[in-house]
Write a structure and sequence with these properties.
The chain is α/β, with parallel strands linked by helices. The chain has 16 helices and 20 strands. Strand 5 and strand 6 form a beta hairpin. Strands 8, 9, 12, 13, 14, 15, 16, 17, 18 and 19 form a ten-stranded mixed beta sheet that branches. Strands 5-6-4-3-1-20 form a six-stranded mixed beta sheet.
């Protein structure tokens, strides 16, 4: 058991939130009637461990908590032992709170891109070149190291938590279903018009390319976007399951553009097929729903009516998200988890962690909401590989991120759109996804849908209470 001593903070919501998350991330339990005490304050206090508090205000004000921190060897830089006490001269609490609650994005809500998203380039993580460093996990790892030392000196029993059914880490497989109709006169017309416009502007070859593209698609024996059975067969061959996030639009033509109707008999049929065979169905919240409570509730209700059962999770279309408003709307709509928090233009750890976490900023009495952060999205590879997308390049990055997840017993959340699973326009992505599954099958990794992963994580973190006293 760990007892936290934090004068003046014992009843503060933000402090109880971040300490609860930190303790749930620690990968072992202390089984002893004698507690290990950690004090948190601006000057050294009692306890086995002291963590320096940089910000004396009631709640952390700084949204740039790590401007000059070198995260490569925190122990050597910030830990010392004085008078029998381990002292950590780095405000881990403030850093973890700022990242997990997305304080920087809340403070700079005026810096939005054309889709009303906080741009990665405006973040401290980007500016410090820390996008692929899960800073919260690194900080918790430092605390784990110090707790182990202090517990050893007090002869406290340390019991490792079993995570991911004995596997090293976990991977969420997810698919956003943006479109299901590849063979479309509207689509063909758009391609031809784009080619013609390019020809007028001095690139006549683009029109010929568009004509050839339309011909290939028209000659295809089946619709290249209708790939659900292909996904099922492939993932089933490895014993994997995934989450499909479906739009729940009333009309095929809407402010979303040309998409699909959730009440279309063909769509209803595939939804029931996926559900029956064990795949999870989540809601792909429409473009305008991320700040519209009534719209999101209607879409959830519509999808649940078709499925004849509850929908647990949501991912917003275009990854449109604004903290904490979107979280509040999702929780108020009855979702158990969100899986939107990731960068639309980069890979990395937007909330600073590879782990699922409970969100901060919900009104009192609102049901709890979990976040399963997004790590890797297929659409980013083209810019990341400078237009030279290859199976090898994709696998290299996926392997690197799985290695990071292993280090922290965390989760990598992979998004592969359903329109990236055909050989007409997405042959490299199609082949790469097959190779990713083969890699996971031989990597001692727990693989599942968002609900599968969240369920396993909740088992591991269940029963961990937080004891905070004022002195």
């Amino acid at each position: 058991m760990i007892r936290w001593i934090a004068p003046g903070l014992e009843q503060k919501t933000w402090f109880r939130f971040v300490i609860g998350q930190v303790e749930s991330f620690i990968r072992f339990e202390l089984e002893s009637p004698v507690p290990l005490t950690i004090s948190y304050g601006p000057t050294p206090q009692g306890g086995d461990i002291w963590i320096k508090r940089e910000d004396p205000s009631p709640a952390p004000k700084s949204v740039h908590p790590f401007p000059k921190v070198n995260f490569t060897d925190l122990f050597a830089q910030y830990v010392e032992r004085v008078d029998g006490q381990y002292r950590i001269r780095l405000d881990l609490v403030r850093i973890c709170f700022a990242l997990l609650s997305l304080q920087e994005e809340i403070a700079q809500c005026d810096k939005m891109d054309q889709h009303s998203r906080f741009p990665c380039e405006a973040s401290s993580l980007y500016q410090a070149r820390l996008l692929d460093t899960p800073i919260v996990d690194v900080c918790v790892g430092l605390l784990e190291q110090v707790v182990r030392l202090a517990a050893g000196e007090k002869h406290l029993l340390i019991v490792a938590r079993e995570l991911w059914k004995g596997k090293d880490c976990a991977v969420c497989l997810t698919h956003d279903v943006d479109d299901i109709y590849g063979k479309s006169l509207v689509r063909y017309g758009y391609w031809l018009a784009s080619g013609a416009w390019a020809a007028v502007r001095g690139s006549p070859h683009r029109l010929q390319e568009s004509i050839q593209r339309v011909k290939r698609w028209m000659d295809a024996p089946r619709d290249p976007y209708w790939v659900f059975e292909d996904y099922v067969r492939l993932e089933e061959s490895y014993g994997f399951r995934s989450t499909f996030f479906f739009l729940a639009l009333r009309w095929q033509l809407s402010r979303e553009g040309r998409r699909y109707r959730i009440l279309d008999p063909k769509v209803r049929s595939v939804l029931h097929l996926l559900k029956r065979q064990g795949w999870e169905i989540g809601l792909h919240g429409s473009y305008f729903s991320f700040l519209n409570p009534s719209r999101l509730k209607q879409e959830k209700k519509r999808l649940e009516a078709v499925l004849e059962g509850p929908v647990m999770g949501v991912r917003q279309h275009y990854l449109r998200f604004r903290a904490p408003d979107s979280w509040r709307i999702q929780a108020g709509s009855g979702f158990q988890y969100d899986s939107t928090v990731g960068w639309p233009t980069y890979f990395g750890f937007r909330a600073g962690t590879t782990r699922p976490f409970q969100v901060f900023g919900l009104e009192t009495g609102t049901p709890k909401l979990w976040e399963l952060p997004l790590s890797i999205m297929d659409g980013v590879f083209d810019s990341w590989l400078f237009g030279q997308v290859s199976v090898e390049g994709i696998l290299e990055l996926v392997e690197r991120y799985i290695k990071i997840a292993r280090r922290y017993s965390g989760v990598i959340n992979i998004l592969w759109h359903t329109d990236r699973f055909n050989d007409l326009d997405a042959a490299v992505y199609h082949a790469a996804y097959k190779e990713i599954l083969a890699l996971l099958a031989h990597g001692n990794v727990f693989v599942g849908s968002c609900s599968d992963v969240l369920r396993e994580w909740q088992k591991c973190s269940a029963g961990k209470g937080v004891e905070i006293v004022g002195s």
